[in-house]
Amino acid sequence: MTDIGLERWRLILGEPAGSCLGGLSGDAAAQDAALDWLYGRDEQLDQRDIRRQGGTGPSQLTTVDWLDDITRLFPKETVERLQRDAVERYEIDDIVTDPDVLQRIEPNPSLLRAVLRTKHLMNPEVLRLARRIVEAVVRDLMERLATEVRQSFSGARSRRSSRFKQARDFDARRTIRANLGNYRPEEQRVYVETPYFMSRTRRQLSQWQVILLVDQSGSMLSSVIHSAVTAACLWGLPGVRTHLIAFDTDVVDLTSDVSDPVELLMKSQLGGGTDIARAVRYAAQLVEQPRRTIVAVISDFFEGGSEADLVRGVRGLVEQGSIVLGLAALDEQADPAYDRVCAQKLANVGAWVGAMTPGELAAFVAERVGR
């Protein structure tokens, strides 16, 4: 087969398409064998009376062989997708529990999640090798988020005008309001004669508390990772005192480890039930100045404890002047899956409910601290 388009369709459809599209050879046959090693175990193929069978590649691939093959045969983005499907969709745990595999695998976020899910299965030697994945991915996350945090905290924007014209300080609202007289309806445009800018100040900031309450249930794994990194980036910033609390049915204060997100994640215990109300009660005990406190509850809001107690606890925090964020996701995608009924009840008593990326949370904190 020489037609690239037909070859790709043959790789997608597998052996059943061979009678129509022809056979494979060389790297294409090896790619087919690698894809079959992974996707040939899909239960839906049996249900649809379809079986993928590899071409002329190796008769039996081990996990190590498979990783070597996909690294050689596919681009990096495809390799990461295949690895993600292996650990998340098909739960091939030896990808992160086999020492030979861990020594050669390229760290990425999917593998970090797999390590955190399976670290309790690892002996000390394997855990040492797996830590390399945790360190590499966390370092990358820290570098990217630290830049966003520094930008957010580079100086609080005041409402005073500035004679220094910088794009980041452009006051769009005031500029539009002041130039509405130049609106041309036939063009649907406002012509700006006088732009306005806000000044940035580095005035002495009053201390704020930021209390992150992180649900440790398995579905919140990405949020646990990004919460640890976010807390580390906020740690030590002027005007901010950060607490990191993990919870399931128990509550664990991880604030003493917040400056070392790698160690923090290696200590995390995923799974178990969920008692959000208990975590909120613990947070309430930490509050020193209610009107200078942000409590971020990072959870899917599937409450295993008393929902009434949860709502009561959030209402108490709001009534005393604290800002309560109910975050259904805190990661790069900010793609939430949560109990909307429970979340709505929290919104009804004054919580801000939604999803944020870590950068958006940092910007939110910076805006409040700088006021």
Automatic annotation (TrEMBL):
- Please name the SUPFAM superfamilies in this protein's record: vWA-like (SSF53300)
Q: Which SMART domains match?
A: VWA
Q: Which domain of life is it from?
A: Bacteria
Give the matching InterPro entries. Answer: LolB (IPR050458), Uncharacterised_CoxE (IPR008912), VWF_A (IPR002035), vWFA_dom_sf (IPR036465)
Provide the VWFA domain boundaries.
207-366
PANTHER family given for it?
A: OUTER MEMBRANE LOLAB LIPOPROTEIN INSERTION APPARATUS (PTHR30634), OUTER-MEMBRANE LIPOPROTEIN LOLB (PTHR30634:SF16)
Q: What is this protein called?
A: VWFA domain-containing protein
Give the source species: Actinoplanes lobatus
The lineage, from the top, is: Bacteria, Bacillati, Actinomycetota, Actinomycetes, Micromonosporales
Instruction: Give the gene name.
Output: yehP
